[in-house]
Amino acid sequence: MQTTSAVREQPNTQQGHPPGLYLLFFTEMWERFSYYGMRGLLMLYLSKTALEGGLGINAASASLIYGYFTGFVYLTPIIGGWLADKYIGQRRAILIGGLTMAVGQFFLFMQPSLSTQGVFFGLPWPTLLGLLLLILGNGFFKPNISTIVGKLYEQGDPRRDAAFTIFYMGINTGAFLAPLVCGYFAEDLFATKTVVNGIEQVASYGFRYGFLAAGIGMLLGQLAFNLLGTRFLGDTGMYPEGRNEDKTITKAPLTKEETDRMAVIFIITLFVVFFWAGFEQAGSSLTLYTDKFIDREVGGFLIPTSWFQSVNAGFIVLLGAPVAALWVYLGRRGRDLSIPVKMGLGMVLLGVGFLFMVGAVMQRGGDIADQTIKASIWWLLATYFFHTVGELCLSPVGLSMVSRLSPAALTSMLMGVWFLAPFVAQIAGGYIAAYVEELGALKVFGLIAGFVILAGLILIAIAKKLFHMMHGRG
């Protein structure tokens, strides 16, 4: 079976990380630049009027489109992971996925005409096709690059959790830069502005140029990955784990320990649905609330709404290394928290973050429609801070968990299963965002906080049982 490579033969006693980790960091950084650059503009692009350069879709329908798009982005990794495990290997899947997503961004760049409107929820066909290609390409890319990170380390290597946190910093470096660059293109450089009551406002947005920048970023990551992959990764991820050298399928029955570990993946996946349903409000209801009701003016400068998509990523870049060092520190002293406890703690922290949004609504006097009454920007920044700390306790640890607990021949597919939680959560989150205007932000933000905190406490309560089912890999 093709399970060894030049990279994996390196001794595991070294204190540093293999150079392949940093190539994967760079590749993922540009892929996330592409995705988050587009995502940071999507709700605004859907909901702004045609005169403003948008599609003029009402807020409820735009929230549903956003929810279904971001949801299916997390469903297709199951298919892409399975194909990589069985037939094409992770490296080829990453190439296919990256190029497909770049083409998708270029379709979004196409200027829609009136003759293309109304295909689906009012979407013009270039936009619809672009979103579909992004969904498909992400299915090939997302589970497989995370799987390769895990392949760089043998089971039991104490550097594994830290490696996934470093890799996660790559994700968020791209996510931090993307809204700033793409948002600057769309809301400033290529935007048409006007002055109303002495305040400069955007009359028409240059969304298409933000999508163009996102597509170029995707190509940069693919160029680096394919030119440097052989040098820094050896043959890691080149061949499907489910086949041996003479291309015959290797079938071995799963052991009791393996089935228990797989069960843990499924159980925790169910819990983190609550986390992602709340967390991903950042791109929908929080974006719309920020655009209307948060005081974005600082020193006479009106901060573009899309720039707030960088706040979470910026916090992760700042906090990622200290959190990675904390896990290593605790692990070396035998005091590390178990995976379920870390993830339950992350959910509780997310809920605490939403309590600050409740505070923002209350500062305005409740759910009032007057957009001249603004809440302090500090409520929003505090929300993103707690969301970030919660995410660092949950998401990179979850990626590491899947690579630890999965049977070798099923790792990429089970990485796809892990992304089922965001799939369900994104769609649910779209419906939640669609009802903000009907139910009121105060009630919605409060309910999210309560449900997520409760789910986190339950996960912590059953952590010992789940740890036992991990059979030494928790």
TrEMBL record:
Q: Does the keyword Transport apply?
A: yes
**Keywords, A to Z?**
Cell membrane, Membrane, Peptide transport, Protein transport, Transmembrane, Transmembrane helix, Transport
Q: Which PROSITE patterns match?
A: MFS
| Protein's UniProt keywords contain Ubl conjugation | no
InterPro entries associated with the record: Dipep/tripep_permease, MFS_dom, MFS_trans_sf, MFS_Transporters, POT_fam
Its domain of life? Bacteria
Q: Where in the cell is it found?
A: Cell membrane
Q: Name one Pfam family in it.
A: PTR2
Q: How does it sit in the membrane?
A: Multi-pass membrane protein
Q: Which residues are in the Major facilitator superfamily (MFS) profile domain?
A: 20-467
Residues passing through the membrane, by range = 65-84, 93-111, 123-141, 162-186, 206-228, 262-279, 311-331, 343-362, 377-402, 414-436, 442-463
Q: What is its main location?
A: membrane
PANTHER family attached here? PROTON-DEPENDENT OLIGOPEPTIDE FAMILY TRANSPORT PROTEIN, RESISTANCE PROTEIN MDTM, PUTATIVE-RELATED-RELATED
Name of protein: Peptide MFS transporter
